[in-house]
Every structure is written in structure tokens, then in C-alpha cells.
Amino acid sequence: MKTIDEIEMMGLEDLERFAADAEIEVPEDLEGQLGELIRTSGMIEDSAKFAHGRRVLVKVLAAAACLQILVLGGIAVSNRLGAPADTFDSPELAYASLERSLMKMSACLDKSRAALEKGNEIAAMPGNKMDEILNKQFQKDRQ
Amino acid sequence: MKKIISILIALTVAANLFAQSGESIYKKYSGREGAEVVYISPAMFRLIGKLPLETMGSGDEMVDIAPLVKSLKGFYLVSISNPAHLASLKADVESFLSSGKYELLMEARDFGNGVKIYMVSQGDYINSLVLLAAESDSTTFICLDGRILLADLEKMLARAC
User: What is the ipTM of this complex?
Assistant: First the structure.
């Protein structure tokens, strides 16, 4: 048996000759084992790539979230600090303004109530157009 | 996976911080040309609640609106007559309404002019009331925040007629 130092000192021709002379047993399923090894190493590599990609994605998302929180948090804080000032100094004027707005809302609601009542009145009228149409259709269906 | 969920929660929280509100709309249009803006703070509402004129009405319709006014937390009015900002205000208000829990209370249309009233309710209480009036030459946004008993609001609106 040659030592590693001796093998390292050998030339290429000597090595080839030595390999040809040596009786080395080649396992029968060496090819299959090598194929399996290659496939496994490929899967490990793919898995490592996926894990790396996920880590990068998480890092990017985390950085984006931190940045957004900082920016929007800053805006929110500045908004809180800059709360609007009252438009009116006196409660009487403020109340007058509030009442005007409530009147506007009330007028709106009245308008819709009036429309609803008008609709109900029309629906309740005997012999109205809608009834006539429905009765005609009903008669047709019966025939 | 936990990290991704945490990040998504953080992003949602951050987005909520920047959500539109009555105040943000008021601030955006405050000081713009052709804009009339009014803000009444909770402190001012407390002062209004102390005014002697707040107990009014007669008979069955008598209503003491002082506690109601005191429960209001904010009043924002933005009225725009500048044609350049009409559509922008309408879009901002609609964005604000779609992002919240507002439901349409009523809508009235009259020759192209439309008035919509939205509210956020919780049982017998209204937490927010919004009016959006889009007319040909102006757009008005009114937002009333506070915990108002629905029956009290009806009385207050009836009294305002």
C-alpha cells in the first residue's frame, strides 16, 4: 500500500499504470448510487435556494413594514400634534353653525320622507295605473 | 410563516394609521381657495351644552339637547365652491366612507343634485353621521362624530326644521 506522499510524488503515467494494475472492486450499483447522490445533492441545493429566497423575502418585507410604520407613524403623530383649532370662539356662533347643518340634514330627510309618503299614497289609490296593469296581466294569465 | 403574518399585521396597522377621516378631509381643504370650513371641538360642544338655549321645545316634543350636544366629539364641515376641487372632495369623501363602516341612511336626487346621508350605528346609538351634498356648483361634506341616541338625533333634526 502506497502512502499519500508517495502517490503525490508519482507522475500521471505511473498513476494510470498503477490504477490499471490494481484490483479494485467496483460495486455493482455504483452508477445507481452516484445518480441517487447527484439527485439528493440537487434537492438539497434547491431547498437551500428556496430557504435563502424566503429569508430575503422576509427581510425585504420587514424592512418595508418598518419603513412604512416609521413614515406613517410620523405622519400620524404630526397630525395628532396639529389638531385643528375651533373655527368659532363663542359657543353661540358654533351652535348657530351646527344648527344650520342640522337644518340641511333635516331638509334632506324631509325630502325623502315626502317622497316615501307620496309613493305610499299612489300605491294606496284605488284604480291607479299600477293596479290596472297588474289586473290586466292577472286576467291574461288566467285565460 | 409567523414572521410573514407579523409583517402583514404591522402593514395593516400602519395603513389604518393613515386612513381617511373627517379630520383629515377638513385639514386637506382648510385654507384652500373657495372652501368654507368649520370645525367644532368636543370642548366647544361642552360649552354649547351649558348654553341656556339648549332646553327647548314644547309639550311632547320638548327635548333637552344639552346632554346630546355634550356627547358630540367633533363636527367638521367642508363646503367647496371652487370647480377645481369639487370632484376631488367628492372622491375623498367617498373613499373615507368606503373605508369605514358607514351605511347609507338616505339619498335624495333632484335635477342632477344629489344628497346622501351616511351613518355608523351601534344598536340604538349613532357613532357618526355624514352628509355629502354634490351640487352642480358646490360640494358639501358634513361629519358629526359622537355617541348619539338615535331617538335624540331624530328629535334634534325635527327641532332644526
Answer: 0.72
